[in-house]
Every structure is written in C-alpha cells, then in structure tokens.
C-alpha cells in the first residue's frame, strides 16, 4: 500500500464514521447532544475532504 491508497482508505473510513455520527445525532438524540453529534459528523466530512484533496500531492 502506498500513501495514496492509505489516504483513500482513510477518506472512506472518515466518510462512513461521519454518516454514522450524523445519523446518531438525527435519530438517537433529540436534545442538545444531537446538535453536538451533528457538528462532529460534519467535522469528519471536512477532514475526509482534506484527505481526498491530499491524495495526489503527498
């Protein structure tokens, strides 16, 4: 596995975890904690976007 493959897998894992965390915030928690889970999930998507952008440059 080279660096691009590792970044590709990291991007996929971060997207899956972001979907799970946002899903928890939407469906499981109805109070203020849901907003926190949603914010963290969106942060996971942002980090995955950065990993995807770095894939050809490292």
Distance linking N and C termini: 14 Å
Mean model confidence by pLDDT: 91
Q: Return the string of H and E elements.
A: HH
Helix content range:
over 70%
The 3D shape can be described as elongated
Classification by helices and strands: mainly alpha
Query: With helices defined by DSSP (H or I, 4 residues minimum), what is the helix count?
Result: 2
Count the strands?
Answer: 0
The largest pleated sheet is described as: none
Range of strand content: under 5%
Unreliable residue runs:
none
Radius of gyration: 13 Å
Short description:
This protein is mainly α. It contains two helices and no strands.
Describe the protein in words.
This protein has 58 residues and is mainly alpha-helical. It is 83% helix and 0% strand. The chain has helices at residues 3-27, 32-54. Helix 1 (3-27) runs antiparallel to helix 2 (32-54). The longest helix has 25 residues, at 3-27. The model has no long low-confidence stretch (mean pLDDT 91).
